[in-house]
Amino acid sequence: MTEILSTPAIPAIVRDILASLGIGTDRFQGGTLVVTSPIDGTPIAAVPETTASDVAAAISRAQAAFLQWRTVPAPRRGELVRRLGEELRVNKAAVGRLVTIEVGKSVSEGLGEVQEMIDICDFAVGLSRQLYGLTIQSERADHRLIAFGGPRPHVASGCLRRHGHGGPALHDAKAPDCA
CB within 8 A of 123, min separation 6: which ones? Predict the structure, then answer.
């Protein structure tokens, strides 16, 4: 692990790690903004600077993507997060080394940062399946299972009634509409 702290080796290590992760050199070389490692100030990348109009365009694209992404059912969004967690697991050592070089943390701290990312992915996947409140997520787009309250406690009687919102609703088994 001492190779990470060797000044001449740092740029080559960064280049090799990024290449192993499928990131082309055009993404971190040839720009005007120099990125240095806090370990010893060694330049590790030269990225392009972003103009205010570039930022505005990126924000606009992100907003449009969000509007589309939020229509994807939570369990499907959770699946993408699960896959991200798996990629982090597979590449934990490489990403941990990048954290060490880029942020100046020890190797064990860099690996710990990646493990925290993995843990957050696992947690988020669980949340995508949580049954918070009275709305239950569904695999189907534009579909929710919603429990409606009534004067008596709900029971799981299997009594379902279609509503205008497109989803079935559980009702009190003794309610007149379940007859």
Answer: none
Tell me what pLDDT residue 135 has. Answer: 64
Give the whole-angstrom CA distance, residue 52 versus residue 177. 58
Consecutive H or E run containing 10: helix 10-20
Calpha distance 51→60 (Å, rounded): 14
- Rounded to two decimals, what is the model's pTM? 0.66
> How far apart, in whole angstroms, are the C-alpha atoms of residue 104 and residue 127?
32
Contact 125, 85 (CB under 8 A): yes
Q: Mean pLDDT for each consecutive 10-residue tract of the chain (179 residues)?
A: 60 92 90 91 91 95 95 91 96 95 92 93 85 63 62 44 41 42
